[in-house]
């Protein structure tokens, strides 16, 4: 493919504010990230930190209050097939068979029926899904559904792939297999990937670099390079290097998670749970 | 109607129980013909059971009818003038040979077809558009909510004033009866469309027209068909009422006329005919739904 060199993602000074009755809420504040062409980058952070917000802005579903969001230097102005997205909820069309799901993006591009059938069959063959091409998604397991989701997003030949906790709903075993499948596909296609997760191990195992986000208002707290060699093997997760990275990232995330929980709102919530803090700081108790 | 709905869960359990009982050692080749019949019987045990029980229960109903009418029971409820099943059967055999009766039935069917198709043809697209475009919804919804609670029968005098022919007003009332259930259900279907599917489609390059065709419409289809089924039921209710009041033909008119002419057996015949027609038409819609939504039948 000629498009291998492209796929530069740049987010500069991204801010997102919205109005409520209590005043303006800042969800994301001055976040900047870069994904080089062909790079695999993850964003981790406590829940509600705005990692999915960044992803949605890149997909074109929302515009930032301030800041720039560009892909290959072009400002993102709406959803498009050159930016593939994969959702946690699989999001396959239940009324389309596996093959029709994969064909969807090509159909939107106006590719003639026989041609898109041929392409979809080839891709499904590569993903080992040929026996299921005429099944409706209802009959597939979660892992298989997400495999179809990935194949569907890749079918149009996107420059970048955005994944929003794609394996969050899968069991641990299936998740490991899916991570392997994703890395294999990424290494073959050399496509830029931005991966949002709250699973630290998953982020380390998959990524070249990891951005750690702070609790709300979300901003980039740290950027961690993952120097583990490729191709990565499941056994690497036990190496001292991996565990060292894990420990470092854990403490970064923990600080933020505690901050996210220990804010004014959460202290109230803890009262509601009838946990007696006896005047101590929540962080100290934990 | 209920019997059909209840049948499917019943049939599922023997299917799932089957493998452990009947296939101890992997299946080798097709079983002999006698085995095939037995296997079919076993696999469809749930359905066969439901049909058998249904037939027995219908037979008991007719038997009770026979006992009550043949003995002219009059215990608060008076069965004195109610025709026996036998009387009705005789009238039915007579009616089947009479072209007038066929005309009545055909007339009613034609009115249902026009009224219902018109309602579906307007309500479904309107519901889809109202679900998608807020302004249209904000404009049209209040009008619908005001008109919706008015029973179709209450429209009869107004319909007679509005339409130059009797035929026109009857079709109009049938239309009104089925219009609102179809519209409301289509709207609900649109409101329940999973936003993630819409986002997924847009990420794959779908524009407005394609979103409608490929996402909103198929996602709303189950609700639309619920609306069509309910709408068909209300269409019959409205049609019969309209025919009884202002008709000169039709099965509703036939039933009312039988009362005026003291043809009591014909009253029951008319009622049973209406029941059968209603059953057949809602069955047809369910069949259509299954054809239009192969993915839900695969479950």
Automatic annotation (TrEMBL), chain A:
PROSITE patterns: ABC_TRANSPORTER_1 (PS00211), ABC_TRANSPORTER_2 (PS50893)
Segments forming domain ABC transporter: 9-240
Pfam family, one: ABC_tran
GO molecular function terms listed in the Swiss-Prot or TrEMBL record: ATP binding; ATP hydrolysis activity
SUPFAM superfamilies, alphabetized: P-loop containing nucleoside triphosphate hydrolases (SSF52540)
UniProt keywords, alphabetically: ATP-binding, Nucleotide-binding, Transport
Record keyword Transport present: yes
Listed PANTHER family: ALIPHATIC SULFONATES IMPORT ATP-BINDING PROTEIN SSUB, TAURINE IMPORT ATP-BINDING PROTEIN-RELATED
Family: Belongs to the ABC transporter superfamily.
Name listed for the protein in its UniProt record: ABC transporter ATP-binding protein
Species whose genome carries this gene: Methylobacterium oxalidis
Organism phylogeny: Bacteria, Pseudomonadati, Pseudomonadota, Alphaproteobacteria, Hyphomicrobiales
From TrEMBL, chain B:
Gene Ontology BP terms: alkanesulfonate transmembrane transport
Function: Probably part of an ABC transporter complex. Probably responsible for the translocation of the substrate across the membrane.
Family to which this protein belongs: Belongs to the binding-protein-dependent transport system permease family.
Protein name in UniProt: ABC transporter permease
Annotated transmembrane regions: 48-68, 112-131, 143-163, 169-187, 224-247, 267-289
Membrane-topology annotation of the record: Multi-pass membrane protein
Organism of provenance: Methylobacterium oxalidis
InterPro entries on file: MetI-like, MetI-like_sf
Annotated CDD domains: TM_PBP2
Keyword Transmembrane helix carried by entry: yes
Pfam annotation, one family: BPD_transp_1
